[in-house]
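Record 1 of the preview.
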Amino acid sequence: MRKTARHPTGSPPEQRLPHRLLHRLRLRLRLRLGHRWPVRNTLTSAIVLLATLVAALAVVLTGITAGETAHSSAEAQERDQLARQATVLSRVPAPGSLLRADEQRLAGSNGVRLAVVAADGRVAGPAAPALTDTDHDRLLSGRSVSTTATLAGRRFMVEAHPSPGGGAVVLAQPMTDVRRAAGRMQNSLLLPMATGLLGAALAGALLARRIARPLTSAAAVAHRLAAGERGLHGPVSGPAEAVELGSSLTVLDQALTRSENRQREFLLSVSHEIRTPLTVVKGYAEALDDGVVPAEELPAVGRTLLTETRRLDGFVSDLLRLARLEADDFHLDIRRTDLAALVEEAAKTWSRLCARHHVDFRLEHPTTPVLADTDGSRVRQIADGLLENALRVTPQGSPLVLALRAEDGHAVIQVRDGGPGLSDDDAAIAFERGALRDRYRDIRPVGSGLGLAIAHRLTTRLGGTITASGQGPEGGACFTVTLPSGTAD
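->
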């Protein structure tokens, strides 16, 4: 008969095929699930693990210490018991009778060996080799002996006590008895130590839950804030750090709400500002397209279209300028600059513009150079923006001052006007986009609402500061720009 060939593993390949497919399917499912839901180390698991490790370390150290203590205690107990036995036996009237030819161990004892020292100094019994000459002399002098000796390669405790009629009784007990007693003591500690370890893990889990719960709540609030939800409050319970995090999230929610409201109001003002010139341009364009504008009015219509187009272009330019200032790659050309010469150049331009509007322009600056490591063109841009803003609100016959001075290693530029000034509330929001424009658009002449925001951003980029004061020496607003590294030569 032909023998059927068997697979090396004991089953034919056609029977192993489904198992291979099942194994591959399980492997792919495991990899896919692991890729989709990766295992993450959470704070809770970390705290529980840390508490368990600390408890385990404490248990190990306690076990080592308890083991040493148990061994010492067991040895002390066994030695004390052995010493009492030696004392009792030493009082027997004839200690030599304790030795029998057929008995090498003490009756009723577990491995205890006996030796008897006669009054004349002779030693007999299995425990005799445990005595040294010093121990022998000590016993004969009437003093007890407590020591450790080696008999036949084993360690023994030795207790010897002198007899009242002379001589002594010697008992030797194996140290293995001590180890067994110490082991029983250590085993009695296993349950308390295991209970302590379990209790530490449980306490760690409760602590982790208490700590992680407010953090989880804070993370949920942060996700909801990121999703655009507002009016949320962070957790107010738990550890002090978690409460502080919750308070920070609440403050962040309020700041986001204010920022979004300002952005919304700014977009509305931008839309209104752009719609007005577009409406004018559209109306005149339709009129020109319909041919209803008389020929003699065409120049006036053209001038109106040009004015509104320039107004719209200036507003868009301000928006683009502000957007560039917000970019991280905004370029600055920092070099040694004489700010005194810079304000003199600015004064030539603005004195003519002020004269055209019948405004008294004044320049205040030292006769010596005021040097600073800065970007001169950006400083001029700041000064022009502040002067343009001031000229818009300064009435005829009132002063407009451009001042420069060196002060404590800084260069200070001021623009002061004789206009209506600013209140304390106005000064607090003066550099927010469109804030003053929205407040005074129906009261006084206003611009695009971006000029002061641009000046503030430029000053910050140059490493300086800009402040607004409601009432300057001339009776109107006062804007002060302080730039670093200013010196007077």
